[in-house]
Design brief:
Layout lengths: L1 E6 L3 E7 L5 E8 L3 H12 L7 E6 L28 H8 L4 E5 H12 L7 E7 L3 E7 L2 E2 L32 H5 L1 H8 L11 H21 L4 E4 L7 H14 L8 H4 E2 L7 H12 L2
Parallel strand pairs: 1-4, 4-5, 6-9, 9-10
Antiparallel strand pairs: 1-2, 2-3, 6-7, 7-8
Length: about 280
């Protein structure tokens, strides 16, 4: 039996599966304080006596460098109460089993790479557009990372000529996350993304920002597939807009697969992250 935690900035999801990764129980709860969240995590997993390993995909930034004194910490997050929190350490104090540890987007990327839309590829990049924006990439079975994990949501982009919004990122203002995340939409218009019309001008603006990001990732990393998930991508009109603007911006400078197969949404849907967590657990043995 394996356990998994998808630790998001808005909510946590915990699940247990059999060795074939078939999930037979899951719970979710809001991301409140570390103390309250840990209590709910322990309450869920403590009912099972035969969990062999747990995989955690966490919101960040986090420390993934095993030799670092803060390995396993959530570090400089703007999420109140979670800054410099030793998440992995608290889990290891409670459970004497292997625990896999990476970012939430790396976990989702792993899910799509191993059993989802990139199963036939040697490389893929996963980008999530939700409460924040983050990205992870896998090449030949390994996560991209060195001194730390990528922070793909904080790249700088050109502002759309019709967008005078200052951005919501507390560190960079109008970076990709500051301009294209879910909270940026709500801050602009006072309503959540799903409440806006499908032909609202914001979708063209957001597509411009996401297309710019995909061009940058393409030129730097050259993945075989870019998978874009997260709550904002539940708006069905945005994917085609991103692909159209990506094709225009790239201008055939480098060869890429057809846009319809290159920039896609997750095959696993909202299960990509928790599935990746279960794979982390399995791979930690």
């Amino acid at each position: 039996m394996f356990g998994a935690i998808e630790a998001g900035g808005t909510k946590f999801v915990c699940a247990v599966s059999d060795e074939e990764l078939k999930i037979f129980e899951r719970v979710s709860f809001p991301t409140t304080t570390p103390e309250e969240v840990l209590e709910k995590i322990f309450e869920f997993f403590d009912t099972y006596n035969d969990i062999k390993a747990i995989g955690i995909g966490s919101f960040g930034p986090i420390d993934i460098v095993e030799k670092s004194p803060t390995y396993g910490y959530i570090t400089t997050t703007p999420k109140k109460g979670w800054n410099n929190f030793n998440f992995l350490g608290k889990m290891k104090e409670h459970y004497n089993i292997p625990i896999g540890w990476t970012t939430d987007v790396n976990a989702a990327c792993l899910g799509e790479y191993e059993v989802g839309g990139a199963v036939d590829n040697d490389s893929c990049l996963y980008l999530t557009i939700g409460t924040g924006i983050g990205g992870g990439a896998i090449f030949n079975g390994n996560f991209i990372g060195g001194f730390g994990h990528p922070e793909m949501g904080h790249i700088l982009i050109k502002k759309h000529p019709q967008d005078d919004f200052e951005g919501v990122c507390p560190y960079h203002g109008d970076c990709l996350e500051g301009l294209a995340s879910g909270p940026s939409i709500e801050k602009r218009y006072g309503v959540k993304a799903q409440e806006l019309e499908t032909d609202h001008k914001i979708w063209e603006i957001l597509a411009s920002y996401l297309a710019q990001a995909c061009v940058s990732y393409t030129l730097i990393l050259r993945p075989e597939k870019i998978i874009i998930g997260g709550g904002v991508m539940h708006q069905p009109q945005i994917l085609d807009l991103v692909k159209e603007q990506f094709t225009t911006l790239l201008a055939k400078y480098v060869e890429v697969p057809d846009a319809d197969s290159y920039i896609v949404t997750p095959t696993l849907g909202d299960n990509a992250g928790i599935t990746g967590g279960l794979l982390l657990a399995k791979n930690s043995l």
